[in-house]
Design a protein that fits this description.
The protein is α+β, with helices and mostly antiparallel strands. It is built from 16 helices and 13 strands.
């Protein structure tokens, strides 16, 4: 019977959260992970791979209004998986690709329903280890908006979590483990530091397997084929080498390893459960071994058949063609047309992306399995070659569309740059007829605050023009002034304070913001100078009177 497995670990510090982040996103070498996995790992939520602590702080800032203590748990890591036999596997013993599976989506939906959709900030599927599993991170926020891991994860709720998760995984043949079992789980924070040691111990218990003696595979003589002897020898050597290698891999001393582990495991109840799992693994391994033998025998038969078909095609071609050669030609044309349509689709999608130049365009094609050869664009899988005339993305020539994409990308990048934003602001000022010395700001607020804010700016001799009330009950107030007017200090102070007023947003361009601040400084200097001159005249008059 397959078991549903779910575990949690509190991320108790920023360092702990950082270590979990780098581990789960493989930002450092992980000893028990395949550096070149058959199926990719996948992140479903945190696509930027932001540090878990940062994600938690951001979510807390959105909801929690109370002060958060330094020692409070900001995030909790959840691991979700099943026992190895729960997953579909190929003849090589590797699990199938679960990245786009309903199983992965059901796990994500389970967490969202259990802890709140926005409280699930990361969900990562790992497929570079023996068994697919999920590392998720949730922020423990209660329904009344408090940050409290101890209230969410009690003994009772943890038991319920195990039961609820097992029920959610029932469609995949998984059930709950023994309730109130005395088995103890190793904390995940220790697991990150023990991966290398675990790998060493497993290697010690896993002895190399002896090879199976098997009669070399022989191919029959095939007449009427140029280079048949060389081909025959190469095929025999390849097939025999593959058979020996595959059999050596699957025939191992699994039973001896299981017996040693079982002997140690019998000392407690948790270990006894592990024994049953290992025995199931052994049975799976034996089945896989038998499957390898059967698969290799079937491959031998397929090689014989292909050998015969190749001989028939070569003879038919030598005699001017035949049914098989025509079938191959038809199949080749069909595959070529499908490859061309695939290339057109790839190019059309690429043209919608930000592409700055030809180098970026070629890089996108390479990601999709296409390369540039001397004769055109080459499909790296089947070798099909096409030039610009063969493809018409969107029904048009490729070259003009590429140039338009380059220009669009450069224009978008310029618009986001400091120079681009300044140019946009200047264009908008010209449209409004706004002179360089004229300042303008637009405040948006709740209608109930309009009169109060309007009076503040009117008292500072700024022009005020209210806008129409919007459907959501908010209204805009346009403020106009001169950067050099006598009350610029008061206007500048009001606009600075408005940035922090509750429910008020301020919109103004960088030119006005800079020049009102400069104007306020100049006005302050003028007032200081005037005050000094006035004081000097007063003191001078007194001296004069004393001299008369």
């Amino acid at each position: 019977m397959a078991y549903a497995i779910i575990r949690i670990a509190k991320l108790t510090s920023q360092v702990h959260a950082h270590n979990a982040t780098t581990h789960n996103y493989r930002q450092h070498e992980v000893s028990n992970a395949d550096p070149a996995p058959q199926h990719p790992n996948k992140e479903y939520l945190n696509h930027e791979q932001t540090d878990y602590w940062t994600l938690a702080e951001a979510r807390i800032g959105e909801v929690v209004t109370r002060k958060v203590r330094a020692d409070q748990v900001r995030a909790v890591e959840v691991i979700m998986t099943g026992s190895p036999e729960a997953f579909v596997r190929g003849q090589d013993g590797r699990a199938a690709d679960y990245s786009n599976s309903k199983w992965a989506q059901d796990n994500l939906n389970f967490l969202k329903e259990k802890f709140g959709e926005k409280n699930v900030v990361s969900f990562t599927l790992h497929q570079d280890e023996k068994t697919p599993h999920v590392h998720a991170v949730i922020v423990p926020i209660t329904q009344d908006g408090r940050l409290s891991a101890k209230d969410i994860f009690t003994r009772q709720t943890l038991r319920e979590l195990q039961t609820d998760y097992a029920q959610a995984m029932q469609p995949y043949g998984m059930s709950r483990g023994i309730e109130h079992s005395q088995a103890e789980h190793q904390p995940m924070r220790r697991q990150y530091g023990q991966e290398a040691e675990n790998a060493r111990q497993v290697a010690e218990l896993s002895k190399p397997a002896a090879s199976i003696v098997r009669e070399p595979f022989k191919l029959d003589e095939m007449p009427l084929m140029v280079g048949r002897d060389t081909w025959k020898a190469e095929q025999e050597a390849r097939i025999n080498a593959e058979i020996s290698q595959r059999v050596a891999q699957v025939q191992a001393q699994e039973r001896e390893r299981v017996e040693k582990l079982a002997e140690l495991a019998q000392k407690n109840t948790a270990a006894a459960e592990q024994v049953r799992t290992l025995q199931k693994q052994l049975g799976t391994s034996e089945g896989l071994k038998q499957g390898h033998f059967t698969g290799l025998q079937e491959r031998d038969t397929q090689v014989d058949w292909l050998y015969d078909q190749q001989a028939r095609v070569s003879v038919q071609l030598a005699q001017g063609g035949g049914t098989l050669s025509r079938q191959l030609e038809t199949e080749g044309k069909l595959r070529t047309e499908n490859a061309r349509k695939e290339l057109v689709s790839v190019v059309e999608k690429t043209l919608t992306k930000p592409i700055r130049d030809q180098a970026m365009f070629l890089e996108e094609l390479k990601k999709a399995g296409w390369a540039i050869g001397k004769d055109g664009i080459v499909n790296e899988k089947n070798g099909a070659v096409f030039n610009n005339k063969d493809i018409s993305p969107n029904g048009l020539d490729l070259a003009p569309q590429l140039m338009a994409t380059y220009e669009r990308t450069k224009a978008a990048e310029f618009a986001q740059s400091a120079a681009g934003k300044l140019a946009t602001e200047q264009a908008e000022r010209q449209v409004r007829g706004q002179q360089a010395h004229q300042g303008r700001a637009v405040l948006e607020m709740d209608a109930k605050d309009l009169e109060t804010i309007k009076k503040h700016f009117s008292d500072a001799n700024a022009g005020v023009r209210p806008g129409q009330m919007q459907a959501d009950g908010r209204v805009q107030l346009e403020i106009v002034y001169h950067h050099t007017q006598p009350t610029i200090r008061e206007i500048n102070e009001l606009l600075n304070r408005a940035q922090n007023w509750t429910g008020v947003t301020v919109q103004e361009d960088s030119h006005d913001r800079e020049h009102r601040q400069v104007g306020a400084v100049h006005r302050g200097q003028e007032l200081k100078a005037e005050k000094g001159q006035s004081k000097g005249r007063s003191q001078g008059g007194g001296i004069g009177m004393g001299g008369r």
